[in-house]
Design brief:
294 residues, alpha/beta, Nitrilase/N-carbamoyl-D-aminoacid amidohydrolase, six-stranded mixed sheet
Length: 294
Amino acid sequence: MIVKCGLIQAINAEYPEGASTEVIKEANILKHIEMIREAGEKGVQILCLQEIFFGPYFCAEQNKQWYDMVEKIPEGPTTQRLAKLAKEYNMVIIIPIYEEDLPGIYYNTAAVIDADGTYLGKYRKNHIPHVPTTEDGTKGFLEKFYFRPGNLGYPVFKTKYATIGVYICYDRHFPEGARALALNGAEIVFNPSATVAGLSEYLWKLEQPAHAVANGYFIGAINRVGTEAPWDIGHFYGSSYFCDPRGEFLAEGSRDKDELVIADLDLNKIKEVREVWQFFRDRRPETYGSLTEQ
């Protein structure tokens, strides 16, 4: 079975200096709606947006104003709005947003909407980085100020077209969750990210193809593009891509522009690869107890 999948990488939308979070969100949502419609017109069946798609990567600073970006899932306006597009185009959409669970309890989350507009569930980012700004002025990633660690485990979602899992940005550095998604039945894992050139760029095309090979599934890796004022933490280098269970690249985006990256994923390749590399047969879970020790 072949599934046409898409990834959206985009530069933060333009808006007036000093704009409210409401204005910022609306500008980014409208920009992405255009790209979502493009995906629908091109026959994309499963589409994933980038990490917290409706705003800038504000985690370079600690500022309570960004708490105003949060929404409930699934009853929040953004989830409801994009669910209508999913139904219109008969397209599964993964929607990464800043989620409010309770007042003051916030998560970095992705909602999964099926092709008929039905809300299937959500994944909350499990691994939360917190890297302070260095003495030389290099901006850090202050995510613990904004997000609690996820508490929903590693769910998978049986959509109309495939069983999918979600991993978010920093999660990709941890192979344990990538394996858990495979054991739970994921055929395609999407990783919406916001990552800049520098320290971790060399890992971008190593870790996730390695997850695909070790677990025998497809990966869709998404990264935003451009630089974002006023923080200027670096260049978000795009390079979104799909790779198959052999770790081979099927499609790749540019480093510096808005782009819809599309690939046809042949799900039959999962069985083909797993019958050659019997990693699941040869696992020894009874020997892995130390992996869950504190």
